[in-house]
Write a structure and sequence with these properties.
This protein has 339 residues and is of the alpha+beta class. It folds into three domains: 66 residues, Uridine Diphospho-n-acetylenolpyruvylglucosamine Reductase, domain 2, CATH 3.30.43; 112 residues, Uridine Diphospho-n-acetylenolpyruvylglucosamine Reductase, domain 3, CATH 3.30.465.10; 104 residues, Alpha-Beta Complex (Uridine Diphospho-n-acetylenolpyruvylglucosamine Reductase, domain 1), CATH 3.90.78. The strands form six sheets. Strands 6-7-12-10-11 form a five-stranded antiparallel beta sheet. The protein is globular and about 60 Å long. The structure holds flavin-adenine dinucleotide (FAD) and uridine-diphosphate-2(N-acetylglucosaminyl) butyric acid (EPU). Flavin-adenine dinucleotide binds next to β3, β8, β12 and β13. The site of flavin-adenine dinucleotide has 32 residues, from β3, β8, β12 and β13.
Length: 339
């Protein structure tokens, strides 16, 4: 398949919030060569550009008056050196397909990241994470196309400046590169990461004392299904906000007033607060406002009950930010990319 430039394309099937907006131009990209070909086309070149994977971390508030490139570059391969395995995947591979491949092959490292929606190519952008593991723990390198020059560049771990839901691609290199391939550093020897409370209790419920990576993947998947809405039935983009990381001084002030505050210690004399708890305390859990609201089992997830506009979801998210600020003097930052 090769990329074809289309005009006036609905983006509703391409964002998990299910927001019905349009792209002026749209092309699906199946190879690095496609990228070069499409971006050299004069009418495409002149346009503002948006790169989309699975559209599971975006909120469209209006039509996109430019060119949307949906990255569908396929392919998974593995190279084994003793117990070390380097797995390389095309940016368009569905993230969970990569996880399932690794679990089936006995390649350990990504099992805690089971069932996260989206694509391989987007995984370094916000350094996806769940259940005690982040992408950075298994990241080897990625290949990317520089939009300004059309040249390919390889990014090593240190180049990516990974942080909590953060990387160089969200900061100084935002909008400058298109990731085409990611390489992961995995192992045939499982080093089970089951510290996360919910994993431990679910393994205990199932009577599993020595979990395999397949057990961990299954347990993580079932915890996720119980908490998070399935975008194929209820539009959403996972956690709408990040968990705020605050200085110890601020943490102490808030916890003095609210001793039941839910938090996690993080390095650097800072504390991460559970945004879902803060939002629930402001009375927003399961709240429905028009066609939008928060999920009944997870206040951090904003949902589209059907027919919501991006503006409606955005303005509801502003109400949440204001309520949390008024009650706790803590400012929530959106995880979801606003467009
Ligand atoms: P998109 O939404 O398409 O894009 C996200 C951003 O990355 C955009 O800025 C886009 O321009 C950029 N981008 C995408 N692909 C490329 C590329 N190839 N090159 C350059 N830039 C690119 N996230 C977590 O971290 N942990 C979770 O546990 C988690 N759970 C979720 C649960 C649900 C139900 C949902 C809907 C989302 C969840 N998310 C979670 C958020 C989301 O799955 C991740 O952010 C995922 O990596 C987004 O992938 P995507 O392909 O859909 O990216
Ligand atoms: N909580 C509430 N009420 C709520 C939701 C949460 O009180 O409505 C409290 C609970 O005490 C709970 C704590 O908050 O124990 C943490 O909740 P949860 O375990 O559901 O995790 P989270 O912090 O809300 C984060 C990530 C998720 C990731 C899970 C599991 C962020 C912004 N979110 O959620 O990632 O899957 O941990 O590791 O860091 C995403 O990024 O899109 C995402 C879903």
């Amino acid at each position: 398949m090769t990329a074809v430039l289309q005009e006036h394309t609905s983006l509703k099937p391409f964002n998990t919030f299910g927001i019905p907006v349009y792209a002026h131009f749209f092309a699906e990209i199946f190879s690095e060569r496609d990228l070069g070909a499409i971006l050299q086309d004069a009418s495409a070149k002149a346009q503002p550009l948006l790169v989309l994977g699975g559209g599971s971390n975006v909120l469209f508030t209006k039509d996109f008056e430019g060119l949307v490139l949906k990255i569908s570059i396929p392919g998974i391969s593995a190279e084994q050196q003793g117990t070390r395995v380097l797995v390389t995947a095309g940016a368009g591979v569905v993230w969970n397909d990569l996880v399932m491949y690794c679990v089936q092959q006995g390649f350990a490292g990504v099992e805690n990241l089971s069932l996260i929606p989206g694509t391989v190519g987007a995984s370094p952008i916000q350094n996806i994470g769940a259940y005690g593991v982040e992408l950075k723990d298994v990241f080897h390198s990625c290949r990317a196309y520089e939009i300004a020059t059309g040249e390919m560049r390889t990014f090593a771990y240190a180049d990516c400046k990974f942080g909590y839901r953060d990387s160089v691609f969200k900061n100084e290199l935002k909008g400058k590169y298109i990731i085409t391939e990611v390489r992961f550093d995995l192992s045939t020897e499982a080093n089970a990461n089951i510290q996360y409370g919910a994993i431990q209790s679910e393994l205990a419920n199932r009577g599993i004392a020595q979990p395999t990576i397949a057990d961990i993947s299954n347990v993580v998947s079932s915890i996720r299904v119980s908490k998070l809405p399935d975008p194929s039935t209820i539009g959403n983009a996972g956690s709408f906000f990040k968990n705020p990381v605050v200085d110890r001084e601020k943490f102490e002030a808030v916890s003095a007033k609210f001793p039941e505050l839910v938090y996690y210690e993080v390095p650097g004399n800072q504390v991460k607060l559970a945004a879902g708890w803060l939002i629930e305390q402001c009375g927003f859990k399961g709240k429905v406002v028009g066609q939008t609201g928060t999920w009944k089992n997870q206040a951090l997830v904003l949902v589209n009950h059907g027919g919501a506009t991006g503006q409606e979801v955005y303005s509801f998210s502003e109400d949440i930010i204001q309520a949390v600020r008024a009650k706790f003097d803590v400012i929530l930052e959106r995880e979801v990319n606003l467009l």
